[in-house]
Design brief:
This protein is mainly alpha-helical. It has 2 domains: about 5-45, no CATH class; about 55-135. It is built from 6 helices and 7 strands; from the N terminus they run ββββααβββαααα. It has helices spanning about 30, 35-40, 65-85, 90-95, 105-125, 130-135; strands spanning about 5, 10, 15, 25, 45, 55-60, 60. The strands form 3 sheets. It has a 3-stranded antiparallel β-sheet with strand order 2-1-5, covered by helices on one side. A two-stranded antiparallel sheet has the order 3-4. α3 (about 65-85) runs antiparallel to α5. The chain is elongated and about 85 Å long.
Length: about 150
Amino acid sequence: MPYMLDGRQLRVGRPFKTSDGVSYSQLWSTQLTAEEKTAIGITYEADPAPFDSLYYTSPNTPRDVDEIKPILIKQQKDTAASMLYKTDWYVTRKAETDTAIPSAVTTFRAAVRTACTAREGEITAAANTAALETLMNTAPGQSGALTQWPEE
């Protein structure tokens, strides 16, 4: 984050003037000691803590869980659609030529729809933003993780 003086940002490598007219060269950041910077009134503002903007509006302010759930449910539907897309041609071929869909394909497509429904239910059941974030960020196969997608 930046160095600040009287509410304005000081850029390292650029000269500046104080409100009382004292000029400092572009080397101020390396030539002035921490004590001299403090005496002038220069402060350093640390970078804010990183946060996931899907779940939070600021580091300690969670979004409303009901605002996030539709976004995550749509992501699940999109993932399912992407997985089903690869085998859609079997369904089209069945409709057009009455050629049977292989049972492995039918089983896979049913498993994708089942997993999507389960994942949507798990998202819907999250009580608050923290629980939803934990659910979404728990590694597959770990306790508390979302239902896994089927293997192709």
